[in-house]
Amino acid sequence: MVLGVSGGIAAFKACEVLRRLTESGHDVRVVPTESALEFVGAATFEALSGHPVRTGVFTDVEEVPHVRLGQEADLVVVAPATADLMARAAHGMADDLLASTLLTARCPVLLVPAMHTEMWEHPATRANVSRLREHGVVVAEPARGRLTGADSGKGRMPEPAEIVDLSRLLLAEGAALPHDLSGKRVVVTAGGTREPLDPVRYLGNRSSGRQGYALARVAAHRGAEVTLVAAHSADLVEPAGVRMVHVGTADQLRDAVLEASDGANVLVMAAAVADFRPVSHVDHKIKKTDRDPDALELTRNPDILADVIEQRRAGKLDTDVVVGFAAETGDPDTTVLEHGRAKLERKGCDLLVVNTVGDGRAFEVEDNDGWLLAADGAELPIPHGSKSRLAARVWDAVAARLGGNVG
């Protein structure tokens, strides 16, 4: 891999990106610009990568580095990518080693912007981003947050964990992400709902939220306008370029989903919604002597996916594609896949992702697998891999149902 670093204050984050990539077993060559070395010294990159660092094309000329690095790379990532770097890349300039590497690369290329909001929103930058995407370059969506000095806004470099996750996806896919969700409004749910019993205890589940966050992240990088309705999640980094809505209970999730889905093209229900909640909730901690533990009364929570489908059938929602998730375990009489097929027919959604849970699968882990079932009878096995890769398969199927309109 080649990790390019251009000259912005976010260059310090490239050190953490580099550390995570090398610890994952990747051989990484760092190619900074001269201005990047004003922020982070060459010795730091050399110590973390185990390779010498150079910026110009006249060092080790006999190795022809300005051509060889791009030719041999499986992935090129530039983090941060400044407005200047993207302008030079968009117009095919080759005035330093990093620009030359971008021009010769035939592998997936990921540029991770970092700049002030005014620079990101400038027509010249927007035109350069569009041009780069037309050339097959993946230009990540920047995050919102604190910038240089006291300024805040869109343009902040995403966190290293998100950059590495996207890098893993591009390496696994071996190709750039399509920008086929541009202009589409997408709602994704994630995490596990919690139903309070008292101020200390609740009924919940083991969902970490990772799959829903991955779905939102990949959709944003494929051009969608994404709202992520998140119940309890395992301290996950909020995806860059995504609008967040935080909820706690199933009732709150239902209200947020129905509000966010008004006018949305796609709804993906990846949250693990508690099936039941306590009939009563008290505002003080229940003592051991306060109640018989066998007397806990429960009532059913709303079936949010069924509610959405019913509202769509009644013409109250015009969502084009609704995707459900089914976390299943087999039993002596029925397999996981058979449970999934029955649930798809019962729920009436367009697509259903079926996951096997238990024994360290699906919940609280980094990877996932399963099946993608469609209402028309199509079934796609999804092999074991990162949750972002499973998300990519879901969005492939969604894009096909939306007509494959490319923005």
UniProtKB/TrEMBL annotation:
Protein name: Coenzyme A biosynthesis bifunctional protein CoaBC
Organism whose genome encodes this protein: Allosaccharopolyspora coralli
Keywords: Decarboxylase, Flavoprotein, FMN, Ligase, Lyase, Magnesium, Metal-binding, Multifunctional enzyme
Gene designation: coaBC
Protein's job: Catalyzes two steps in the biosynthesis of coenzyme A. In the first step cysteine is conjugated to 4'-phosphopantothenate to form 4-phosphopantothenoylcysteine, in the latter compound is decarboxylated to form 4'-phosphopantotheine. Catalyzes two sequential steps in the biosynthesis of coenzyme A. In the first step cysteine is conjugated to 4'-phosphopantothenate to form 4-phosphopantothenoylcysteine. In the second step the latter compound is decarboxylated to form 4'-phosphopantotheine.
One GO MF term attached to the UniProt entry: metal ion binding
Manner of cofactor binding, per the entry note: Binds 1 FMN per subunit.
EC numbers for this chain: 4.1.1.36, 6.3.2.5
Region entry Phosphopantothenoylcysteine decarboxylase, spans: 1-185
Organism classification: Bacteria, Bacillati, Actinomycetota, Actinomycetes, Pseudonocardiales
Domain DNA/pantothenate metabolism flavoprotein C-terminal: 181-400
